[in-house]
Amino acid sequence: MRIRALLAALLVTVAAAPLLADARDDAKKQVQFGIEVAQRNLWIEALLRWQRAVQIDPTYAAAYNNLAIGYEHEGDLDKARAAYEKALQLEPDNALIKQNYELFKEINDRTSRTNGQ
Amino acid sequence: MTGRAALTVSSCLAVALTAACTSYYEIPVETPIRAKLDVGAFQRVLVAGFLAGGTDEVDGNLETTRLLRSQLRTKSDLRVIDVDVLPLMEVASEGRDSEANGQGAQSALPAVIKDDKDLDAYEHVFANVEYWKKIGEEHQQPLIVTGTVMFTSQANTQMRQTESEITDALGRRRTVPERRLVERKGFGLNGRFIFIDGRTGTTMFSQNFRESVMYDANRQTPALSSYFELMDKLIPSFLATLSSQKIKGTRILLN
User: Model-level pTM?
Assistant: First the structure.
């Protein structure tokens, strides 16, 4: 009985592995397309692609990083912060994401140097 | 290798290592920052003047008014009204005198503003809705910028570590760390920008600020130059209140 259960679990894992790999591959395609259009200054399209990428694979840190940059470019700073934080949650040691986030925070600090009422 | 250098080298290595494992693309970005205040209803702006105090080496009222007008002329869509700077201390004194006479008592305001306490005695001028409404009517109901500016000289001491070379009894030279107190002097700039609706005379928004700069005591820095150094730090935020801006930078896209 126990062996059967183990075998079933193994089967599920083996069957799911290609699905996960497929999800990452699909997400990567979206991310790459987003990069290409962003380089042509088509940021709205890029943003849509990166949004789709994180829907397909919610564990893909690079997609969240790019999404954060897209939001920054659109001036949606709250969403940018949330996306950077998600990216860093997924890959806390990624130095490039950290660098982007530090630059983003510098802008926020600069624009809120004084206190408004 | 100092701790700071080690940190720099290790973070560069971390970036290089991450970059080696990932496809990355550097891309220029322009982050739009929306104005904090909706000034769509105004076509003109009047930088009226400031209640200023502190050191008498800089006329905070005149210099702040001039600087903000010139910045708004080049970096805002609003048309800047060029008129004489309002003597707000006199206006505040007149208002207080007439109030005091009405009550049969005389309340004296400090002749010069040396500190925040002196400034407090004049602040009632900003709440004088009728006065600001009248100023607004005289200039076709613009957005009015006013506030307080306190520019003061400051001094403090700071512990600083240096290395000095000594020769021991055997004639050997070596460096030893030496900690000593260093006297510093500089200036502080604090106050408030107040944005008043010229149609109603009421305050729409106010923004506090506080900055300081310190130098070695033997360095001679003119007060006016320090004043501009400090205002340079405040201007981006002041402008961001009135007009949208785009901040240029670069980011790294990853795949």
Answer: 0.65
